Amino acid sequence: MHVFVTGATGWIGSAVVDELLDAGHEVTGLARSDDSATALERKGARVHRGDLDDLDGLRAGAESADAVIHLANKHDWANPAESDRAERAAVQTFADTLTGTGRAFVLAAGLSTLATGRPATETDLSPAVGPGSHRGGAENLALEYAEKGMRVISARFAPSVHGVGDHGFVAALVAAARKHGVSGYLGDGTAAWAAVHRTDAARLVRLGLEGAPTGSLLHAVAEEAVTTKEIAEAIGRTLDVPVVSVAPENAAEHFGFVGRFFALDMSASSARTRELLKWTPYGPSLAEDIEAGAYA
């Protein structure tokens, strides 16, 4: 299968490209820079130059492939509305291009707002609907095309997709611990995050592309609930700094942008996903990665 991948040199996307190539698929990756293009070429992937705002380029990439995996996102924490706008425009472009073709469209989604007071499951629908909602309501927009001749699959990633080289939420928590000399958690630390190793997440994306039916909501989750206090304790042991509670009103000052997420309960189950795809995570746990120096 020839797969067009956006975010192909990103944290998750680069692992997905490796997984696809190892499985014998052909890959064309979207590349904004010369460095990204070179990285893809070295792996044996083709290069499509462009970015998320080049909608004609996205359309051309989709038209020339057998399937699309959309993992790119601007992640502009200073201007989330712009990230949401770009995400919705890209998904709409892919949907318009792939409708009626029978081709697969896999998009990245999150787990942060799916459930309250319990782990989210694959039966929980995203409350984000419409252009002004989180991620531009892209998941629900894509699902509108699930019965219109496009095989739509949403890959919902745990808030921590961890491993050596991760520069996401946990890396920001480690940076805050280095800055302040303490490893913090908010309140009583009982809020919990789901987690998955990067290689397991990449394998899930490939399995979903190859076999998930249209309309599938897949959870890339290995650990259902790692409490924020447990995360802070693992960071504290690694950096040899005290572990302390931070008052919620001081979250932004202490943690920076990640403070707005650290108090959220973002736990999730992947039981249905594992059964559907026969997917079993094999990678290390989040604590094991932290203590092994993945964020050193």
Automatic annotation (TrEMBL):
GO cellular component term of the entry, any: cytoplasm
Superkingdom in the source lineage: Bacteria
Residues of the NAD-dependent epimerase/dehydratase domain: 3-210
Molecular function in Gene Ontology: aldehyde dehydrogenase (NAD+) activity
Classification via PANTHER family: PROTEIN YEEZ, PUTATIVE-RELATED
Protein name: NAD-dependent epimerase/dehydratase
Species of the source: Amycolatopsis japonica
Phylogenetic lineage: Bacteria, Bacillati, Actinomycetota, Actinomycetes, Pseudonocardiales
